[in-house]
Design goal:
Blueprint (H helix, E strand, L loop, with lengths): L1 E4 L2 E5 L18 E9 L8 E9 L4 E5 L2 E4 L4 E9 L9 E6 L7 E4 L5 E6 L5 E10 L9 E10 L3 E6 L10 E9 L10 E6 L2 E6 L4 E4 L8 E6 L11 E4 L5 E5 L16 E5 L6 E4 L8 E3 L23 E3 L10
Parallel strand pairs: 6-12
Antiparallel strand pairs: 1-2, 1-3, 3-4, 5-7, 7-10, 8-9, 8-11, 11-12, 13-14, 14-17, 15-16, 15-18, 18-19, 20-21, 22-23, 22-24
């Protein structure tokens, strides 16, 4: 018996008990395959011919999607490997990648000779998404379609926040603090959003683009400024940064005759040197309470007078004074 596919001879098989069996290779195309069997006859039987239709199915394939990670605004490499247990030649065709993130448009790339397909995807927002890789064989291919899924993780980019402020400021006077918000790796887009600086009982907010805001502290003393940013869709919240300010200004009282005694009612001349703000009030305090406190706007109390700068009604003292932070004026 002879087997034919059209005019192509497939195989010859001997008859045994009126039947023959033979194995032939399937064609490289799918669909209906017509096979013709012919019998040449012998002394007892006449020649005969018959046909049969065989359905050729595509060889099964397996598509393995690769997991992927990356940062927002960076290309994310999507990949897949297409394999088959059949040996019907190179796989060929293409792989279509789709991601369940909002607004993602499917990407298609050809399969290489080893069954690999890779493409770089952009615009995927932060989050955990599922990528689906679908193998699409060319028309008439001996290989069947298949698909696989994998997880991709896209993280917000790390940001770096820096802060700077003047070394000395004046209570009640606004001053500028400067900050910078940048991509920690130096390769990403310019960060956006707001930065808030707080300290000394006050706070101010400025945009990352402006790089500054104006702050006013209400009390003297050492102040630690803290800058924070909430991040945005592209950048994660950076670590808060601190800016330690210098110690507050101070007043050194001098020129007091510490071992002299006075009669009640006599004025006492006190001079001081102000290290700190260029202007403002200095408060003199004595151990006898508020009745001895005086406020003076100049650097020296008038000698031998009963002006508001004169401290009286006590016999001896070790005066002290307090002032806000700032720059020192010239010596009195």
């Amino acid at each position: 018996m002879e087997l034919w596919s059209g005019t192509t001879h497939l195989a010859s098989a001997p008859l045994t008990g009126g039947a023959a069996s033979v194995t032939v290779a399937a064609p490289a195309v799918t669909g209906a395959w017509v096979v013709t069997a012919t019998y040449n006859g012998d002394l007892s039987y006449e020649p005969a011919t018959t046909t049969a239709s065989v359905t050729v199915a595509a060889a099964a394939t397996t598509t393995l999607a690769a997991t992927a990670t990356g940062f927002v605004a960076d290309p994310i490499l999507l990949g897949a490997l297409v394999t088959s247990t059949a040996t019907a030649g190179p796989i060929g065709g293409q792989v279509r990648f789709s991601v369940d993130s909002p607004g993602f448009s499917p990407l298609t790339v050809a399969v290489d000779g080893a069954g690999w397909a890779q493409v770089a995807a952009t615009g995927i927002p932060a989050g955990t998404w599922t990528v689906t890789a679908t193998y699409e064989p060319p028309p008439g291919s001996a290989y069947a379609t298949s698909s696989g899924t994998a997880s991709i993780q896209v993280a917000r980019r790390p940001a770096r926040l820096t802060l700077a402020a003047p070394p000395a400021v004046t209570v009640g006077q606004p001053f500028d603090v400067t900050f910078a918000l940048a991509d920690a790796g130096g390769s990403g887009p310019t960060p956006a959003g707001d930065v808030t600086v707080s300290g000394g009982g006050a706070s101010c907010t400025g945009t990352a683009a402006s790089g500054r805001c104006s702050l006013t502290v209400a009390t003297a003393g050492g102040v630690t400024l803290t800058a924070t940013s909430s991040g945005d869709a592209t950048y994660a919240r950076p670590r808060r940064v601190r800016w330690p300010s210098p110690q507050p200004g101070h007043v050194d009282a001098h020129g007091v005759e510490r071992h002299r005694t006075w009669v009640s009612g006599d004025p006492i001349t006190v001079a001081w040197r102000l290290t700190g703000p260029p202007s403002g009030e200095v408060v003199l305090r004595s151990p006898l309470g508020r009745s001895a406190d005086r406020r003076c706007a100049s650097g020296r109390a008038p000698p031998r007078s009963r002006s508001p700068c004169a401290v009286r009604r006590f016999r001896s003292m070790s005066p002290t004074a307090e002032a806000p932070a700032g720059r020192p004026p010239p010596p009195p």
